[in-house]
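Per your request, structure below.
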């Protein structure tokens, strides 16, 4: 056999080997997902479906899952695919923030999605939304600024820092001036409200 023929055969065999490895990995993942699915409670299954729909940005599927009784916030026993307890009270809302899906985020908040929780990096939902970019956003109803504004009005604190000491604004690009100004205004208002003195006459001071 000629040297060139051997090289071609070697490449073909390597391609077959890699294809088999990929196929085996996919089969293994499908099997693990099936076992995990069977071990889930009804609420966990519905919550999983809601999370996947939010991750896809499928507003119709999100609404359908909610109508079928999917809990908008994680069941107490909920665990992710890696077996770790999820850090956000509403993983579907995190997906909406991460992908900049304002319609999905609005619907979840309307249905009572919790804004609490930070992940292992100390990120709030605002950190996730601030890190959102065009390469991840997809479908209709995608707007980074609109999602951030929605989360701010829902009460997510823009002053929270992650484990690296960064606030959400630190993850926003310098060119995104409107979003930076929006976060700065809300952070300033939050600081002002925290520093308001307690009136001696018992009257309630108006907060920003």
């Amino acid at each position: 056999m000629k040297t060139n023929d051997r090289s071609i055969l070697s490449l073909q065999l390597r391609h077959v080997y890699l294809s088999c490895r990929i196929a085996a990995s996919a089969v293994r993942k499908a099997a693990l997902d099936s076992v995990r699915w069977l071990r889930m409670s009804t609420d966990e299954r519905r919550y999983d479906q809601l999370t996947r729909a939010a991750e896809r940005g499928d507003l119709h599927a999100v609404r359908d899952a909610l109508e079928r009784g999917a809990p908008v916030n994680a069941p107490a026993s909920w665990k992710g695919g890696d077996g770790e307890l999820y850090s956000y009270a509403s993983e579907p809302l995190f997906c909406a923030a991460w992908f900049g899906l304002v319609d999905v985020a609005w619907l979840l908040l309307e249905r009572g999605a919790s804004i609490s929780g930070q992940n292992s990096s100390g990120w709030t939902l605002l950190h996730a939304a601030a890190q959102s970019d065009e390469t991840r956003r997809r479908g209709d109803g995608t707007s980074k600024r609109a999602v951030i504004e929605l989360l701010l009005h829902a009460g997510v604190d823009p002053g929270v820092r992650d484990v690296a000491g960064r606030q959400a604004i630190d993850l926003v690009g310098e060119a995104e001036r409107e979003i930076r100004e929006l976060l700065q205004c809300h952070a300033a208002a939050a600081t002002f409200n925290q520093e308001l003195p307690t009136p001696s006459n018992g009257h309630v001071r108006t907060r920003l």
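The CA atoms of residues 153 and 186 lie 9 Å apart.

Regards,
D.
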